[in-house]
Amino acid sequence: MGDLHTWTTVLITDITYGIQGEEAQPFIKTAIEAVKSITIATTPGAFLVDQISILKYVPEWFPGAGFKRKAREWDLLRMEMTEDPFRVTKERMVAGTATPSLASAALEQMDPTKDIAKQEELIKAASVTAHIGGTDTIVATMGGFILAMLMNPDIQTRAQHELDRVLAPGDLPTFALEPDLPYVQAIMWEVLRHQPVVPLCFPHLVTEDDVYSGYLIPKNSIIMPNIWSILHNEDDYPDPYRFNPSRFLDINGRLDPSVKDVLGPAFGFGRRACPGKELALASLWIRIASILTCYRIEPEIDEYGNLAERKAEWYPGLTMFNHPLPFKCRFIPRSKDIEVSLDMNFT
């Protein structure tokens, strides 16, 4: 999904550090590799030390201690991703050439009477967290959307009919039209529900004794809410393993407020809920609506001119980040305004 990674990383780099367009290119590879390392490292059971904790005391050369070498390599990636773009933002602020960003706004609001170095470290940590959090999640969700359209041509057709009714020929969707496109909205919600990007919520610490369904959860327990289970509950979402945006609509084709909200579980809980939720939703909606307006997503054609089999495969097992396995498709322009057909290889 190289194109999606580049597209998303450029956007997040601009928002976080004010580094725009081509200037963001040097930071893209590091960001993508760093996010991949986090995906692997946070997968339960990815390394033997997860089951045999005593391995954390063995030297790096010892059999079974490969995780230590990986950790050292990944720590260098983390430092590079944390330090380099932040340094560019600071240098541009000194030169008076910085564009507005999360990092520049926070630096401008530092309290000169308090520890400057400590404040900068906090801003640096918050910035890189926002950068990481907004990259792979959007890429995985967009990959899931494209794959869902490939596998469900009837749903894609219905969404495009809705767009064609609302948009004038040659126009692109805008946020002002969002209320007039309930089926497009329902597709976005179903993408988030059907294959949640974070199937297991990040660990939370229980701050006081609690009882759930008759089970005591003691204070200081570490819990990981099962988002996958919540979003596949048959009582809330009948036939939950079927990709069906219509589940969010009433008989008149309007959004049905009685259907359980997917955004709460999809974006986390409590104080640790995703702070970039609104940005993510806006970004996803405009991308989904724009792609459906401009292109028809179709299977690739083999060497004999036949359409390839429509096939959907996802990363095996319950991981921290969920994403589709590599797949191929074609983007067919829906109008003469879109100049060429795009063959895209999602790897």
UniProtKB/TrEMBL annotation:
Kindly indicate whether the keyword Glycoprotein belongs to this entry.
no
A molecular function (GO) held by this record is: monooxygenase activity
Q: Which coenzymes or cofactors are required?
A: heme
| Binding-site positions, heme | C274
Keywords for the protein's UniProt record, in alphabetical order: Heme, Iron, Metal-binding, Monooxygenase, Oxidoreductase
- What does the record give as its pathway? Secondary metabolite biosynthesis
Q: Which family does it belong to?
A: Belongs to the cytochrome P450 family.
Q: Which PANTHER family match?
A: P450, PUTATIVE (EUROFUNG)-RELATED, P450, PUTATIVE (EUROFUNG)-RELATED-RELATED
Q: What is this protein called?
A: Cytochrome P450
